[in-house]
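Dear colleague,

Thank you for sharing your sequence with our group. We've completed the structure prediction you requested, and as agreed, I am returning the results in plain text so they can be pasted directly into your records. Please verify that the sequence below matches your submission; if there's any discrepancy, let me know and we will rerun it promptly.
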Amino acid sequence: MNVLNKLLIVGLLAGSVAAPVLAADATQPAPQQKYFHHMDPAQREALMAKRQQELHDQLKLQPNQEAAWQRYSNAMKPGSRPEEPSREDLARMTAPDRMALHLKELKRHEIMMGQRLDATQTFYAQLTTQQKQTFDAATLPRHPHEEHEAKPAQ
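Please find the predicted structure tokens below.
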């Protein structure tokens, strides 16, 4: 019984010390992480251009590879997207019609990705072994928080 009372008192003291800290954290708004596809279009375009330039610089392309780079980088630019229907428009549609609309968008996306794959394969074939390794590493998908987290020392 004595041990139980001590544990209860320690728990209450710990809770009273932690409560203001937890309350302070709760009042702070969480930082807004904007994912790439939710960015302002101008910001997204600027970020893409910056990343493309970084990749170009990392690859150390030879003059005879520049034409292939231009075809690749042009193919990677985002295409025009059809205007998305409003919430009201979607509400007026039947469920099968909404699914058909979604399928149409997926097919459009599949065609675009096929074109990008073709351009990437053509460009990749022009690279040296070292450039391929650099390209493979540089084009790994990025986690949204990856750039902001500290990397552990190895």
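Summary note from our side: The chain is about 65% helix and 0% strand.

Kind regards,
the structure core
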